């Protein structure tokens, strides 16, 4: 349980930092201006260096995992998505992974039955939970653009309208808020309820979930419960968007907790498993076309290896080969 | 079946019955995985390479030792060797680095590994298998995680960690099934290959892998068979073919100027039941009048270098192109094999190409251009035969296989490392009348390993083999009950070597066949005598002396 409690306590401690800093230290400027810039810089530079670091490393071999029929004889039906034969289809394969979690869609569950035999069932809960979590997070992030922009672009406005079409509360309730919270709850409970998941999970798996959860809960409570004053928040967001350094007008402490946790999250991304958002594009088993017999793939460090040549082989076995009537080069 | 390295089938069945439906073994009571002990016992480890084998290959740390020893006699400074080796591989392989960095431990792979399903050992969950290395990587190669040691699950490299690596990276057959389900495309096979390279740097190894590597290097094949014996063995198969069919086939050896060089794993030349597949190839080539030759020098398709290091894989593979060039053939035809085809498909041209001295493969019988093999210039025999059948070039009588009720086992490497699913099925359906697929979660890209691939087919590893092969056996049992299937057809030499033992253990009465053995049975050869027996000299249904089917 230490694995779960530690990250939970860590998130609580992190939440207390801005609360104490604002309430007792009057450090509004630090939490409103300094830390957000620092976090954004860490995120951008961190991800940049991570990506460069990965891309710099060669892909010596063409090693796609082939999950469908390859392109071969004309009359054999191929599966271009699961076994792409050109870079375009390989890109489609990666994007289907990024946007639709295609591989997770395949997920099955194995059970041991009497006999003994193994029985497999479709198991799409992780796919559904993961998809709900990632997509609602994306929508929520995009929705926040309205704080940072003078006029709201039409697509974002449209997204908001869809998101709030239930129109049940004032201000209008966002579907993605509920969806995100539900998905986070599911993902945490999933790790706790399954014995396999409990064993393989680390504190660093719970920490981001708790962090996301705390950010979402505080965000939601600011909107529907404590009703933070939006005007100074918008002013601060505009300042940050224009790289300004003006001190903000007073904003409720809850907002600073929300902002600080977001900053922690941003700064945490490049150093944690959350880098998978970049790694997924660079996975050589998915982003390469399966055409290694049709086109030569070049290994930049291909070593020069001395192998045992035919001549050396014949030298050792010549007499035996001659006796057996096998042709030889030298008599 | 008795083997001192495995439980009796009934005992293992009982064990499975008792733990259902739990897949995990044991109670962990809140313990972390790194606190679970590593236990070497009879049947779960392979004998280490003999000192003379290591000497021959110029490999590190030759000595006499066993996995059950307390002290593994690791060479001085082994920690640095491993760390430097890791650093070097992280630099040379983007895959290794990205796979170390971007696992989210979502657990989708957890119940996908045949070794996990069969052993219930949590460290056989692909995610944890990789964590065995990631925990060290995080400690030694990342800054923040080291400070937050406990938080991030990082740990120091110790001899116990090496023991754990040895156990679990030799309980991975590099089958890639987990990779199919991973949303990041993390491929445990790739991680296993890296770790096995690292272990070889400090002399932690497996004799069943390194002895074939040494043999293959010297004589051209895994068994260390010298050229004259190699030739004699095939000629004895020629005699067997004549006995069964009345047809004399004429293979040639090391013949310059042949159009095609044929390379198959040596298991097809020496091991039962692979030899029957070899007889099938020989009948097929004779039937179509193919101008081909077999090399005694490049007499091995299988490449155990793949289970050792990239450099060793390249060294052994180099013989194929070298021999094709010397003989002046136009292109290479490859027999039925699993990891040989992964090497040929994904590595050969990169490592030892470009093969400019060869021609783009064209079937001399049908004129079909194999554009998918344009630059490797090597064609898989299932593609080749499927094309022949499609063009009506083979005279086939599928009723000659009516004594068999078949199912097809996709070999992992051909399935997930190449993407060949339809060609062998097409051929199989044309040469036999009864074919039933196993359940869909166990075939094609989701196929299960035989449990003995990647150099783990050792006798002393029997317990783990029978457990690891359980998911495959369970799927075969399903079609056996439902459709009375009694023949498991495959296109991999390791399968032909390992599945018979697995079937004897779990599904007695199921026999293992190579695809081209069935082709050989079905081929109506010119000038043949009345065929009453298949290539194994088993009676064919409806063709006996008393049967009048003319």
TrEMBL record, chain A:
<keyword id="KW-1133">Transmembrane helix</keyword>
<feature type="transmembrane region" description="Helical">
    <location>
        <begin position="209"/>
        <end position="226"/>
    </location>
</feature>
<feature type="domain" description="NarG-like">
    <location>
        <begin position="123"/>
        <end position="277"/>
    </location>
</feature>
<feature type="transmembrane region" description="Helical">
    <location>
        <begin position="253"/>
        <end position="271"/>
    </location>
</feature>
<dbReference type="GO" id="GO:0005886">
    <property type="term" value="C:plasma membrane"/>
</dbReference>
<feature type="transmembrane region" description="Helical">
    <location>
        <begin position="7"/>
        <end position="24"/>
    </location>
</feature>
<dbReference type="InterPro" id="IPR047660">
    <property type="entry name" value="DsrM"/>
</dbReference>
<dbReference type="InterPro" id="IPR023234">
    <property type="entry name" value="NarG-like_domain"/>
</dbReference>
<protein>
    <submittedName>
        <fullName>Menaquinol oxidoreductase</fullName>
    </submittedName>
</protein>
<feature type="transmembrane region" description="Helical">
    <location>
        <begin position="30"/>
        <end position="52"/>
    </location>
</feature>
<dbReference type="InterPro" id="IPR036197">
    <property type="entry name" value="NarG-like_sf"/>
</dbReference>
<keyword id="KW-1003">Cell membrane</keyword>
<keyword id="KW-0472">Membrane</keyword>
<feature type="transmembrane region" description="Helical">
    <location>
        <begin position="125"/>
        <end position="145"/>
    </location>
</feature>
<keyword id="KW-0560">Oxidoreductase</keyword>
<feature type="transmembrane region" description="Helical">
    <location>
        <begin position="165"/>
        <end position="189"/>
    </location>
</feature>
<dbReference type="Pfam" id="PF02665">
    <property type="entry name" value="Nitrate_red_gam"/>
</dbReference>
<dbReference type="GO" id="GO:0016491">
    <property type="term" value="F:oxidoreductase activity"/>
</dbReference>
<keyword id="KW-0812">Transmembrane</keyword>
Automatic annotation (TrEMBL), chain B:
<dbReference type="GO" id="GO:0016491">
    <property type="term" value="F:oxidoreductase activity"/>
</dbReference>
<dbReference type="GO" id="GO:0046872">
    <property type="term" value="F:metal ion binding"/>
</dbReference>
<keyword id="KW-0408">Iron</keyword>
<dbReference type="InterPro" id="IPR009051">
    <property type="entry name" value="Helical_ferredxn"/>
</dbReference>
<protein>
    <submittedName>
        <fullName>Menaquinol oxidoreductase</fullName>
    </submittedName>
</protein>
<dbReference type="GO" id="GO:0051539">
    <property type="term" value="F:4 iron, 4 sulfur cluster binding"/>
</dbReference>
<dbReference type="Pfam" id="PF02754">
    <property type="entry name" value="CCG"/>
</dbReference>
<feature type="region of interest" description="Disordered">
    <location>
        <begin position="530"/>
        <end position="550"/>
    </location>
</feature>
<dbReference type="InterPro" id="IPR017900">
    <property type="entry name" value="4Fe4S_Fe_S_CS"/>
</dbReference>
<dbReference type="Pfam" id="PF13183">
    <property type="entry name" value="Fer4_8"/>
</dbReference>
<keyword id="KW-0813">Transport</keyword>
<feature type="domain" description="4Fe-4S ferredoxin-type">
    <location>
        <begin position="94"/>
        <end position="123"/>
    </location>
</feature>
<dbReference type="InterPro" id="IPR017896">
    <property type="entry name" value="4Fe4S_Fe-S-bd"/>
</dbReference>
<keyword id="KW-0479">Metal-binding</keyword>
<dbReference type="InterPro" id="IPR004017">
    <property type="entry name" value="Cys_rich_dom"/>
</dbReference>
<keyword id="KW-0249">Electron transport</keyword>
<keyword id="KW-0411">Iron-sulfur</keyword>
<keyword id="KW-0004">4Fe-4S</keyword>
